[in-house]
Amino acid sequence: MDDMAPTVASTDNLTRVYGDRVAVDRVTMTVRRGEVYGFLGPNGAGKTTTLRMLLGLVRPTSGSAYATSPVGALIEGPGFFPYLSGRANLRTLARHRGFDDAEVERVLERVDLASRADDRFKGYSLGMKQRLGVAAALLGDPELVVLDEPTNGLDPAGMADMRALVVDLARGGQTVLLSSHLLAEVQEICDRVAIIHEGRLLHEGSVAELRGGVSLRVRAAPEDEALAVAMRLAGDDGVARTPDGALQLALRPERAPRVVRDLVAAGVDVHEVTAVERSLEDVFFEMTTHHVTSPTDPSSHHTTEEVPA
Questions:
Q1: What does each C-alpha distance from 166 to 119, 159, 206, 241 come to in angstroms?
Q2: So what's the pLDDT on residue 232?
Q3: For 153-206, what is each residue's pLDDT tens digit?
Q4: In this predicted model, what pLDDT tens digit does every residue of 78-99 receive, in sequence order?
Q5: What does pTM read for this prediction?
Q6: Which residues face 73 on adjacent strands?
Q7: Following DSSP, what letter does each residue of 51-91 receive, concatenated?
Q8: Between 287 and 113, whose confidence is greater?
Q9: Backbone angles phi, psi at 161, to 5 degrees
Q10: Domains (range + CATH), the chain
Q11: Nearest-CA neighbor of 78 among 124, 31, 42, 140?
Q12: Cα separations in angstroms, 96 against 42, 85, 92, 221
């Protein structure tokens, strides 16, 4: 992804307070043109509230948000007339927004629903309902598409279909801002990721940056002698013990031969040397487990005046 690509959505110290509860706490993030941007966090972390402020559906308590125009969005599931067909629902929405029937057919083809477009919405599977919601978001060919938990509640086949659709949208030149609590989903399809927890943005960057590259896992004995060699090679802060007694070294895989030579020279028996790549799940739990807001931190206090949404 081009670091110089134009910004299509951003927030600057975006904050939303409800009474004495800080739902979103000074979130600053940037979405660039042409990327799939993952907004990752557990349920209740502040993802949907942030997206609603970005789209102008909720007024922030403080801070600012910008999104390019036009923008299409699917927030908290699609809402359609149950007794109308998928095609009739889209035509109703399209006419209200000034689009013709040809545009409806285009988006139905895009989400692979044309063959079922005359079926009533109430008879659709959850996956088909989600795809119809995406079709509605695609009316007018918006530059930015915002999808809030689009795979929520879907079976594995439906999730795979939705992920393939998101990838296809990006390949077609659209920017996708995707919120999710599913780590594997974000790792699989997103270019960059923002992690939000308890309303605060913990990190933003590419998936590769967040995962921190590859390290070496070493099992050797005696353990104390192996630890001393490992710390000499990787530094005191570059070595960690794993629960099963192995050592994790913050070294690139190409350093493995040197590690083995030094361990053997020190009289250490080497049982295993493996290149290990952290998953996004590892990073997420590490961040959220160690993130604690201090009650004495003055930056954690906010004015709690209610602002009408």
A1: 24, 11, 17, 39
A2: 94
A3: 888 888 898 999 999 999 888 999 999 888 888 888 999 999 999 999 998 988
A4: 889 999 999 999 999 999 999 9
A5: 0.76
A6: 146
A7: HHHHTTSS--SEEEEEE-SSEEEE-SS----TTSBHHHHHH
A8: 113
A9: -65, -45
A10: 7-210 (3.40.50.300), 212-290 (3.30.70)
A11: 124
A12: 35, 17, 6, 72
Question: Residues 86, 113: contact at Cβ < 8 Å?
Answer: yes
Q: For residue 297, what pLDDT is reported? A: 44
Per-residue CA distances from 227 to 120, 144, 223, 257 (Å): 65, 50, 6, 17
As given in the structure block, the two tokens for residue 188 are 């699989």
Q: What is the pLDDT of residue 305?
A: 40
Tokens at residue 200, please?
A: 């605060």
Chain centre to alpha carbon of residue 155: 19
| Total residue count of the chain as it appears in this document | 309
| Cis bond upstream, residue 70 (ω within 30) | yes
Rounded Cα distance between 163 and 228, Å, is 46
